[in-house]
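Input structure tokens:
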């Protein structure tokens, strides 16, 4: 997988199986925000389309997924059922993505009472695309401030890595959370596997962990899977505390919200409260091997995709409640067996993602539109008709 190697958004570096951690990551400076710095995002804008990168090679869908480097044997096989992110998923620049043009004014929202429910798929550092998508749905105004009154907004995790401004995304979500609460609504977020990865890289660095397939480190795995040095440099205690307290799953209006399309949540409790408590307690204990195991389980995917998918969804719904699972994590082009390219001369060969993917007999909704592969950053109001 062509992943970011911590070099920032303007550099594309091919990932090799014999990847070695660069020297600078062993001594990552703590970022101190300058006085007067305003983390508020810019007004929505539609940047010009960047030129395609002729060096990019089309991803192969059948190749194993999450890059888990081994310091002993870099070519080790993945354990059974461990299928996180496609190895050659590209890291693309801010201007390479399909942009959303805003042609209409945001629709009015209820002034009081329980507002409408929205969910946001994986963002992965694409702050401009997130701002445009939220504005299009009427959730923020032209200045990037909360404008949805009592609406309820849930982010499904994976705020950082691969894209240019993961810390900017976190700052925006934290600010919107405060603004929404003041307006009588709320903006909340779930724990994704990339939050676990970034937390592990910051806490444990290059401390070896038992990966189940050799020795690995959080630092190397973070870099190999799109970690950006600019994010690490700007990471502050407030970001770490916010990420470590995120829930793993939640139930809203009959929708079981979770990041990963896996049944591994069942390993952590028989109720939503138990799962969330167990995940937070695991992070509190600060044990590298235990945190690595949690990260590995959150990277599993495709549990709902094939013939046994409906049964897997029902197992989760019976344990935690709800009538439908709503998740991110697995890009919709992968769920459909399609992989888009970013080096095409026209838009026709890019992933054609119009909205969420309803599957598993109507029991699951996938929300990762593949923004990292020139797809679409999805913001969807629930419930959906189909």
């Amino acid at each position: 997988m062509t992943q970011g190697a911590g070099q920032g958004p303007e550099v594309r570096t091919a990932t090799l199986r014999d990847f070695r951690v660069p020297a600078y990551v062993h001594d990552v400076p703590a970022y101190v925000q300058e006085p007067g710095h305003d983390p508020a995002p810019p007004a929505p804008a539609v940047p010009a389309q960047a030129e395609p990168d002729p060096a990019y090679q089309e991803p192969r869908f059948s190749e194993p997924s999450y890059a888990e480097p081994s310091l002993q044997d870099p070519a080790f096989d993945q354990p059974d059922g461990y299928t996180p992110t496609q190895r050659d998923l590209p890291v693309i620049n801010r201007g390479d993505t399909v942009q959303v043009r805003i042609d209409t004014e945001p629709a009015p929202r209820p002034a009081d009472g329980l507002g409408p429910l929205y969910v946001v798929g994986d963002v992965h550092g694409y702050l401009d695309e997130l701002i445009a998508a939220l504005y299009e749905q009427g959730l923020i105004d032209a200045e990037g401030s909360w404008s949805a009154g009592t609406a309820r907004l849930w982010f499904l995790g994976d705020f950082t890595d691969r894209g240019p401004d993961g810390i900017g995304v976190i700052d925006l979500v934290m600010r919107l959370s405060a603004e929404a609460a003041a307006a009588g609504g709320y903006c909340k977020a779930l724990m994704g596997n990339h939050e676990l990865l970034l937390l592990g890289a910051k806490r444990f660095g290059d401390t070896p962990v038992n990966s189940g397939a050799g020795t690995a480190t959080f630092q190397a795995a973070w870099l190999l899977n799109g970690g950006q040095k600019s994010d690490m440099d700007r990471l502050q205690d407030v970001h770490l505390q916010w990420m470590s307290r995120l829930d793993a799953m939640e139930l809203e209006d009959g929708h079981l919200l979770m990041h990963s399309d896996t049944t591994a949540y069942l390993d952590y409790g028989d109720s939503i409260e138990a799962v969330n408590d167990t995940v937070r307690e695991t992070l509190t204990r600060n044990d590298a091997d235990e945190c690595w195991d949690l990260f590995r389980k959150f990277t599993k995917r495709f549990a709902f995709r094939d013939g046994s998918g409906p049964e897997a969804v029902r197992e989760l719904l019976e344990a935690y409640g709800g009538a439908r699972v709503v998740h991110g994590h697995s890009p919709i082009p992968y769920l459909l067996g399609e992989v888009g390219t970013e080096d095409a001369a026209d838009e026709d060969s890019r992933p054609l993602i119009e909205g969420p993917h309803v599957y598993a007999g109507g029991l699951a909704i996938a929300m990762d539109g593949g923004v990292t592969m020139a797809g679409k950053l999805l913001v969807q109001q629930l419930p959906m008709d189909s």
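The longest strand covers residues 117-120. Residues 1-65, 68-112, 340-346 have pLDDT under 50 and may be disordered.
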